[in-house]
Amino acid sequence: MDNLVNILYIIAFSMFIYGLMGLTGPKTAVRGNWIAAVGMALAVVATLIAVRDTGNWIIIAAGLIVGVVLGVPPAKFTKMTEMPQLVAAFNGVGGGTVALIAWAEFLDTSGFSNFKHGEEPTVHIVIGSLFAAIIGSISFWGSLIAFGKLQEILPGRPIGLGRLQQPLNLLLVIGAIAASVVIGISAADGGASGWVMVAVLVLAGVLGLMVVLPIGGADMPVVISLLNALTGLSAAAAGLALNNTAMIVAGMIVGASGTILTNLMAKAMNRSIPAIVAGGFGGGGTAPGASGDGEVKTAKATSAADAAVQMAYANQVIVVPGYGMAVAQAQHAVKEMAELLEAKGVEVKYAIHPVAGRMPGHMNVLLAEAEVSYDAMKEMDDINGEFGRTDVALVIGANDVTNPAAREDASSPIYGMPVLNVDKAKSVIVLKRSMNSGFAGIDNPLFYADTTSMLFGDAKKSVSAVTEELKAL
């Protein structure tokens, strides 16, 4: 039976890897997701076989039922606009689970002092469990804050203690490590008190809160990716402590892929990961319409009819989607409008910024849901050179990722961040509800440019109005 368990684990993590390979493109993503899901089902079956002699089948079955009841409805009914929140919540659950596993292992072995079947508290078991407890707890509580900011339960702006923030974080790190050292030393001498393990979990949890609270909304996509990587690493550490091959491999896959993605997104924002974790960015820009010297700027409004005429007689239109498109669920309306333009001989492309939206790949997912061709979606580096040859750039709810201040204003908080060169297009039409700043809280000079006109209102209604005008032309 032990051989069967190992074989099932090998098949399971092989399916994890193969399924992850399928996520590299929209055409294979659904299949890859199903393959990985089947792999996880096999891993669960293998685990049930491995614990067949524990006599806790009722508790295990109850846990499975609770997991299904809590997991399926959100995944099935959550709107695409709320997917970042769901990702943050699910990631937090994973980190919290790992922390609880580490705590259970501590309690089951009397503070790592005695193990079943006469096993000694080896270094990899103790260190693996403590690492899982600290990182899992950080990920759980940090993900809760990320969820709260994305759901707007908490303010998107940085919430911190100023100069006291980093010293406090350092003290929390030292405290968690010190408590872990006490547990490790005590493992060979009768075991540590349960309260010391509680202290590790609490200190790490407070650290998770204090690290994410000062991070502004503009950095949330990177934070989600970073927390996901931490959850993977904590799961791998727990797998090492439990001698569970599937957990080790799955955790390393999540940790490695999350680390790579976090690094890529940080580069896309021209910000280092330590600078992001240090917090303090987002939510403190100038008031909309006011320049640094107090000059009041005005934006030029347009109508759906004028926008339709501009695009109908263009050679190329580049659509720049942002969170406003997600909120309005306008992706299907955008696809219909694009089909009408293409029928009139207009070439339509989509410019995707790496951190547009509230999570990695947010815009790609929305457009793929509307069956927009993957070939029409262009990454920032591939599309930026084309804006100068573009007749109309249609910006739908994007703000920070189109802000030319990132290139031109050294005093701007986002200076140096790579952005889409929307302002280089011959004309720009921006769809927004109002002149409010984006998630970073920074005003966008693009909105006041001579070549820019604003079409105010709900993005879906505005795009639908433009579509009706196109039909009449």
From TrEMBL:
EC number: 7.1.1.1
Protein name: NAD(P) transhydrogenase subunit beta
InterPro entries: DHS-like_NAD/FAD-binding_dom (IPR029035), NADH_DH_b (IPR012136), PNTB-like (IPR034300)
Naturally occurring in which organism (per UniProt): Nocardia uniformis
SUPFAM superfamilies: DHS-like NAD/FAD-binding domain (SSF52467)
Keyword Flavoprotein belongs to the record: no
Transmembrane segments: 6-25, 32-51, 57-74, 86-104, 124-147, 168-188, 194-215, 222-242, 248-266
Highest taxon of the lineage: Bacteria
